[in-house]
Amino acid sequence: MIAMGKRREDRARGKKIHVDRECNLDGDFQNPVRSLHDLNAGNIKEAVLGSRYVQLLISLTVIGALLRLYNLGYNSLWLDEASTLTFAVKSIPDIWQATTGGEFNPPLFYWIEHLMLTFGNSEVVLRFIPALLGILTIPLIYLAGKEFMDRNTGIIAAAAFAFSPFLLFYSQEARAYAMMLFFVTFAMVFYFRALKSNDLTDWALFGVLSALAFWTHFYAVVTIGALVLYAFYELYPKIKSDIKSVQPLAVSCGIIALICLPLIIVTIQLFFRRTASAPTFGIQGPEIILATFSQISGSEIVMVLFLLLFIAGIVQAFLLDRNKGIFLVTVTVLTFVISNFLSYRMPMQPRYLICLSIIFFIAIAISYRFLYTLTESPGAVYGFIAFLVVLNAPTLIGYYSGYTKDDWRGFSEGLQKQTQPGDLVAVIPGYISQPFDYYYSNATDQTIEYPADTADDLRSVSAQKGNNTLFIVVTGDIQAADPGGEAMQWLKDNTKSRGSITGIYLMAG
């Protein structure tokens, strides 16, 4: 029996070597770093010098870092980023109180940004954590792709992450999306390992990282929930034959529930508050599917190509392992079904679905196998990476060629050139004063600033202008704040345009 076991093991090893040789960028090189125990200076040096995968991953991470750190402070803070600053300047306990009091974002990102304010409150400081985590997510998606399928899938997915305009944008935004993506990607590394081994440690780490993702952004629960549901599906045969097999996964769910318990209670309260009335902005219904794929892809043209590769990757996954194909379809479908349902009850934006980029790009990466079938050369992997670079290059060039956020800095400078001491400045809706006041000081400009939300507010402010000029700062947010259109009509009847810049309009009357 021992001999038979050895022969089976030899055959398995031989089969594995055969698969690796089909598309192994390292050739005969054996990476000495196989676990954390192998990490030492000598092994790391040997891996860097001998492994094409390590070299590619380092190169992609460095390039991804340059793309994310370049011009980090070029764009002005826009409304949501200025809102981050509004909460980050509060104390740690007050940030939690703001969450329980109605802020629709968990406190973890604000707590981290609060600590970053030690270094100042510039655009670069506020965006540094998202940029750093965006960089670190590149090697993590490699590990996730490797655990899910193979090293080639991992390295191609890493290239997709490194050059993705969508992920680059949110790595340069002072919001929680890059942090949520980081924790979910990290969690999925251990998730894929746990599905294969059902190891308690892997499941526990998945639980901890999933909980951190939820503390970062509420929408992480959609992805985490889909992962847990699929895990029960895949492990069901084992659980059916041995009920103890469910214990590691149950421990993982328990860890998530325990760490998130205070936030779960708040989340339920906020959900009912957020869904008490119909949303006044955002995307509703099936349109969220097309909008999400379009934004993740970077452009509609690229989206068509990516969707074809996405479908091809899913087909290839089904051919290799039925469960892998089911996984890709399940997480994608569940994400969109839940998002479609929620879109009628709360404002829905594609950026909330940023974690879907993990599934999207892994599936796209798997499609390289069709290219390899045609070429029968490891060069198929290099070619696929080059294809991703060329495909994203036009969008990346456009990204760095001008402003991609509202230019409150330039607008404020322009306003100062038009005002006179004693003039009135009204901002509508009132909450846009957050980015406006980051750059504009009415004390320095010797003007009087008022917030306004309704036509009545505008009439009240206008009545105080006397012989001075009333300047009104307005953005597209007025449509959400004033869905009835009364404020817009007042502006049309009583003011004249003084120009606009990147969607910020200046009226005077």
Question: What does this protein structure show overall?
Answer:
With 509 residues, this protein is mainly α. It folds into two domains: 358 residues, no CATH class; 101 residues, D-Maltodextrin-Binding Protein, domain 2, CATH 3.40.190. It is built from 25 helices and five strands. It has a five-stranded mixed beta sheet with strand order 2-1-3-5-4, sandwiched between helices. Helix 4 crosses helix 6, helix 7 runs parallel beside helix 10 and helix 8 packs parallel to helix 19. The N terminus is likely disordered.
Sum up the structure in keywords:
single chain, 509 residues, mainly alpha, 2 domains, 25 helices
- Report the count of strand segments: 5
> Count of DSSP helices?
25
Coarse structural class: mainly alpha
Percent of residues in helices: 55-70%
Strand order of the largest sheet: 2-1-3-5-4
The proportion of residues in beta strands is 5-15%
Q: Outline, from the CA principal axes? A: globular
Residue stretches low in confidence (pLDDT < 50, at least 5 long) are 1-21
Q: Report mean pLDDT, rounded to a whole number.
A: 91
The profile of the biggest β sheet is: 5 strands, mixed
Strand and helix order: HHHHHHHHHHHHHHHHHHHHEHHEHEHHEE
